[in-house]
């Protein structure tokens, strides 16, 4: 099957500011991809380009379409949840469900109502009468009711408490995801989603600094906990990041000889959150 997303030399400028710098990546069907980076790294600009919401340089194909020139066709098969709910305050929740059902041919009213039934939100309430977290839940339920091949999420659980965030991600996997669908999401709560992700794209200063499957990270990267007495030997093996933790020193490696590392201390595979910090924090001293 062809990639769901294919970007080649994707570039986005805002005047003199280079927000996205010739990034190249592809996303296969049936994957859950975490687009992860600090504030201002270029994540939202990349998402907006993929959805045809902004002009860009380079070549982008999403579901076989040029997003900028064929956005109407693309959005019949894609769904987008931005980082801020945009429903008008006067709108009743049940009327919002009716409206989306009337304008989107792939909307499944039953799925949205099932998601709303798991909340404490009465359908006769108006948006302005809801808390920020409740408004976010309504927006999520409406967007996930669209039977989309591609779901794009930009900080989707912003404003939700821990229980609501977990309920959302459970619904995402159980009620939405299957082998024919693809999800691309950004989030600052990396620890909460890393067990869901199949792939990660780390973005920093408009560039992709890591692109790979979560499964491959365990063989590609290693973290070594070493005593100070053996630090010089460990540094000689070329770590790309180093930090102190509970009296020991942690060093991170890419493509290093694991047998040589294991002889110096305790070796383990870094999780996604730790690897993100290591990759974006600079080299070892």
Chart the SSEs and their pairings.
Blueprint lengths: L4 E10 L2 E11 L4 E5 L6 H8 L6 E6 L8 H4 L3 E4 L11 H11 L5 H9 L14 H13 L5 E5 L7 H15 L5 E5 L3 H4 L5 E6 L2 E7 H7 E6 L4 H5 L5 E5 L2 E7 L3 H5 L3 E3 L3 H9 L5
Parallel strand pairs: 3-7, 3-8, 5-6, 6-7
Antiparallel strand pairs: 1-2, 1-4, 8-9, 10-12, 10-13, 11-12
Helix pairs in contact: 4-5, 5-6
Q: Determine the number of helices (DSSP H or I, runs of at least 4 residues).
A: 11
Reading off the top of the CATH hierarchy, the class of the largest domain is best stated as Alpha Beta
Beta fraction = 25-35%
Please name the fourth-level CATH homologous superfamily of the largest domain: P-loop containing nucleotide triphosphate hydrolases
Return the average pLDDT rounded to an integer: 89
Give the C-alpha Rg. Answer: 21 Å
Number of domain units: 2
**Poorly predicted parts:** none
Strand order of the largest sheet: 5-6-7-3-8-9
Verbal overview:
With 285 residues, the chain is an alpha/beta fold. It has 2 domains: 5-205, P-loop containing nucleotide triphosphate hydrolases (Rossmann fold, 3-Layer(aba) Sandwich); 217-280. It has 11 helices and 13 strands. It has helices at 43-50, 71-74, 93-103, 109-117, 132-144, 162-176, 190-193, 214-220, 231-235, 258-262, 272-280, and strands at residues 5-14, 17-27, 32-36, 57-62, 78-81, 150-154, 182-186, 199-204, 207-213, 221-226, 241-245, 248-254, 266-268. The protein has a 6-stranded mixed β-sheet, with helices on both faces. Helix 4 (109-117) runs antiparallel to helix 5 (132-144) and helix 5 packs parallel to helix 6. The mean pLDDT is 89.
